[in-house]
Design a protein that fits this description.
By secondary structure, the chain is mainly α. The chain has one domain. Strands 1-2 form a two-stranded antiparallel sheet. A hairpin with a 4-residue loop joins β1 and β2. α8 packs antiparallel against α10.
Length: about 500
């Protein structure tokens, strides 16, 4: 079933390209239908899931692929990857709904279905070469999304995105080759590398390999100082492109931390943990401060992504401060990091879809150009308010669950983590400022004559935020999947 979930959208993409050019309506509904079926298959997988044993995967599939370098088609899921698989499937359903009115639907649907397959493939990959192939293909697909359907200086932003992230992927490949060379026998299989920790006796080589992997993943996340490609890419990308970029592609970096860097290089991770913590704190504060200074709504949301990714980096860094007395706290931090990956994907994906509504109506993201928008667009105001409060971590929403776990676990591991707490206050300030500027007061400027959310727009953003509310109120089903694997990862770090 796992291979079907991964490759069904790819097969559908080929089918969509075979439809006649005049069949726009059929193309759009095929796109929605395929993403909905893929989500249903993911839910069925979730219902059948049972926690695998240590260093094992559920629904594992393996086939010979490149035997000369001992690389195989090896896939499976556990508590780290399964929540991201479902989150990815849901975001692509939301984007398909939102894209019902898009231009060049045949090309757009095929490209997004292709991007869905490579994204799902990365989260289930259990072989480093397979992971790298999906990682690189996601960069190529997103380049064409931004360049083909973006606005403003989309060509330049797409090129900057591609060059930055492709350079990061080359560093990642160097790190993977280092792990392969160190392993005996040589292998790219993730489970075998986790069991062997081949660079444990060689701290210098392990540190260099970890540095290469961290650079590759940090560019994709992105963390400070590798973040400069992100704001222009988001600002000029189409709404559904930004939703997938923030909701799915950024998680490829943070997922790589917990899937590859931490369990395969535990000694080096422990040695680098203080640097990782500092990078996380700087990203949290820098992202929030710069977001607070923005008048462009989409750039503001883009910088909050740097802030929220910083929380994840902080948590995984704190997990490397190994001590017998903090094992439970560090497991909580890792659980919070994975929960934050899911939460950020849902919330920020919805906010970028709402940003697309502003541009579709007025071709402007300038918050100062609006005012009193709640009167002509009450649905938009209500949905945006839920997204804003979820992003700032209000109790009852998924952002609170994630951030509470992150800070509980991280501060228990090191009090230095408390330096990131002002990031929550800054995030609250910037979203309340946006709500005030855009939605309150007398209707003025571009708010006059503004059309409220269409059903497809309400449904796409609404489904993401509804799940954020469900997680915020009933987090136990999600945490029951994540927590056992988090505890296993803490054990691997302590070797």
């Amino acid at each position: 079933m796992l291979s079907l979930i991964v490759f069904l959208p790819l097969a559908a993409a080929a089918g969509v390209l075979g439809l006649p050019r005049g069949a726009a309506a059929a193309v759009r509904w095929v796109w929605v239908g395929v993403t909905a079926v893929d989500l249903a298959l993911g839910v069925a997988l979730w219902l059948r899931y049972t926690t695998p044993g240590p260093n094992a995967l559920a629904f594992e599939e393996r086939a010979r692929w490149i035997p000369g370098v001992n690389s195989s088609y090896h896939i499976g899921v556990d508590g780290l990857s399964l929540p991201l698989v479902l989150m990815t499937a849901l975001i692509f359903v939301a984007c398909a709904l939102y894209g019902l009115r898009g231009d060049r639907p045949r090309s757009q649907a095929a490209l997004f279905l292709f991007l869905q397959s490579v994204s799902l493939g990365l989260f289930v990959a259990a072989d480093l070469i397979l992971f790298f192939v999906f990682f690189d293909l996601s960069i190529v697909a997103m380049y064409f999304v931004i360049a083909g359907w973006g606005h403003g200086d989309a060509g330049r932003s797409a090129l900057k995105f591609f060059l930055y992230t492709f350079l990061g992927s080359l560093a990642l490949l160097v790190g993977f080759i280092g792990l392969y060379i160190a392993a005996s026998p040589h292998t790219f299989d993730m489970l075998e590398l986790v069991a062997a920790t081949p660079l444990a006796p060689r701290p210098l080589a392990g540190g260099l390999v970890l540095a290469a992997i961290l650079v590759g993943l940090a560019v994709k996340t992105p963390t400070v100082p590798f973040h400069t490609w992100l704001p222009p890419a988001h600002t000029d990308a189409p709404a559904i492109g930004s939703a997938v970029l923030a909701g799915v592609l950024l998680k490829m970096g943070t997922y790589g931390f917990v899937r590859i860097a931490m369990p395969m290089l535990p000694q080096s991770w422990r040695a680098w943990s203080w640097i990782i913590i500092v990078v996380g704190i700087v990203s949290v504060l820098y992202g929030a401060l710069v977001a607070l200074a923005q008048n462009d709504f989409k750039r503001m949301v883009a910088y909050t992504s740097i802030n929220h990714m910083g929380y994840i980096v902080l948590a995984v860094g704190a997990a490397g401060l190994v001590s017998a007395s903090t094992a439970d706290a560090r497991a909580v931090a890792i659980s919070g990091a994975v929960t934050q990956m899911v939460s950020h994907g849902l919330i920020t994906g919805a906010l970028f879809l709402l940003a697309g509504v502003f541009y579709d109506r007025t071709a402007s993201y300038d918050m100062n150009a609006y005012g009193g928008l709640a009167a002509p667009a009450p649905k938009l105001a209500a949905v945006f308010a839920v997204g804003a409060f979820a992003s700032l971590g209000l109790p009852g929403l998924s952002g609170f669950i994630a951030e509470f776990q992150i800070f509980t676990g991280s501060i228990a591991a090191t009090a230095l983590s408390a330096l990131a707490l002002p990031g929550i206050l800054l995030t609250a300030a910037l979203f309340l400022r946006a709500l005030q500027h855009v939605f309150t007061g007398d209707t003025r400027g571009l708010s006059q004559g503004f059309m409220d959310l269409r059903p497809s727009e309400l449904g796409s953003a609404g489904m993401l935020l509804t799940l954020s509310v469900v997680i915020g109120i009933l987090p136990r089903p999600l945490l029951d999947v994540i927590e056992p694997t988090s505890r296993t990862l803490v054990g691997l770090l302590g070797r």
